[in-house]
Write a structure and sequence with these properties.
This protein is mainly β. The chain is globular and about 60 Å long. A nine-stranded antiparallel beta sheet has the order 11-12-13-14-29-23-22-17-20, with no helix packed on it. A five-stranded antiparallel beta sheet has the order 1-2-3-4-5, with no helix packed on it. The mean pLDDT is 98. Bound molecules: beta-D-glucopyranose. The site of beta-D-glucopyranose has 9 residues, from strand 24.
Length: 348
């Protein structure tokens, strides 16, 4: 086990950005930078015993500075969408940063993915803790929110992210990670043959701008039925309005059950790499990289549409507008807690 630190680059204001490598010595190694809390590499062993880096990434800090697509990044203070950037909290109306079709996406114009985080190394635990204090009124959100994310690479080949946040006023909080996975390796093309199973009976359909309509619909008989394992590509081009509108999956699934539980199992037949996602969150956005920006290049290889999938564990998008959705409200002085684990293994 080890935590290594190296200079990764400098921000335009001269601040140094570091890369931290967490290696469990047992087949899993993550590289994280403290700009955006970005997971730049996640290296797992395939069924042949070879290393594969299973996340998309970029080649330098300069390329991460305008990280269209939020590649690998930490997302906050409010992951996913808020319609018109508006919500009401205890009788007060708030207007937060608008950055997509008149709506707020992933924390607004300058979300947590574009912040420099302070790092504490926990060598004994093969972990780093990244902290960031979001000022009262930042991107229009109420209250000073102190956020900590602990990234650990555990002995059993689990990559774990534990989020905590506390605010001095009532606010909304929804944190996630936006890693783009390809379990055959970042440079291996379409994820269509990956076999995915999601522990979900219901999904939330969207209007054309990606905003949930408020409906919660059964997955049965639709392309959203991943209750039994199936190739991600099987229905990715289906003649089904919710798929056609987005050119694939870009939807929130209600994860069955409560508490910390299995949300999804993804398996790449070629590499044999299996990733189980566990979370305590009520929802998970499956995003099949339907609009990957140009220039997502790692080690010289450019990634294209459908070359990766994201499993963004979260509260449901735009939940402040739908009282039947689990709430993203964080009370004054209360602690937001969220644990998501990505557990790696191999299958034949
Ligand atoms: C959203 C997509 C968006 C992507 C990258 C996802 O979480 O749901 O609509 O394109 O993030 O920005």
């Amino acid at each position: 086990m080890s935590v290594n630190k190296r200079l990764y680059g400098k921000l335009p204001d001269g601040s140094e950005v570091f890369a931290y490598t967490l290696d469990n010595g047992n087949g899993l190694c993550a590289e994280i930078i403290n700009y955006g809390g970005i997971v730049t590499k996640l290296i797992a062993k395939d069924k042949y015993g070879n290393d594969r880096d299973v996340v998309l990434g970029r080649d330098s800090l300069e390329e991460y500075l305008r990280n269209d697509g939020y590649i690998g990044a930490a997302i906050g203070r409010h992951a996913n969408r808020i319609a018109n950037g508006e919500f009401e909290l205890s009788g007060t109306k708030y207007k937060v940063g608008i950055n997509e079709n008149g709506n707020s996406l992933h924390g607004g114009v300058e979300g947590f993915d574009k912040k420099l985080w302070y790092v504490t190394e926990l060598t004994d635990e093969n972990a780093v803790v990244l902290t960031y204090t979001s000022k009262d009124g930042e991107e229009g959100f109420p209250g000073k929110l102190v956020t900590a994310m602990k990234y650990s690479v555990m002995e059993d080949n689990t990559f774990r992210i534990e989020y905590r946040a506390v605010c001095d006023r009532e606010t909304v909080c929804n944190l996630t990670n936006h890693s783009y996975f390809n379990l055959n390796g970042f440079d291996s093309g379409s994820i269509g043959t990956h076999i995915l199973q999601i522990n979900s009976e219901f999904y939330t359909p969207n209007s054309a701008d990606g905003m949930p309509t408020g409906e919660v619909l059964s997955v049965a008989g639709t392309p959203f039925d991943f209750r039994a394992p199936k190739p991600i590509g099987q229905d990715i081009d289906a003649d089904f309005e919710q798929i056609r509108m987005f050119g694939g999956y870009d939807h929130n699934f209600a994860i069955s059950g409560r508490g910390f539980r299995l949300a999804a199992i993804a398996k790449a037949p070629e590499s044999g790499i299996v990733m189980q996602t566990y979370t305590d969150q009520p929802g998970m956005q499956l995003y099949t990289a339907n609009a990957l920006p140009e220039g997502v290049i790692k080690e010289g290889t450019e990634a294209h549409i459908h070359d990766a999938f994201c499993l963004e564990t979260q509260v449901f998008p735009n939940a402040m507008a739908h009282s039947h959705y689990p709430s993203p409200i964080l009370g004054k002085g209360r602690t937001y807690r969220h644990i998501t684990e990505y557990r790696f293994s191999v299958a034949e």
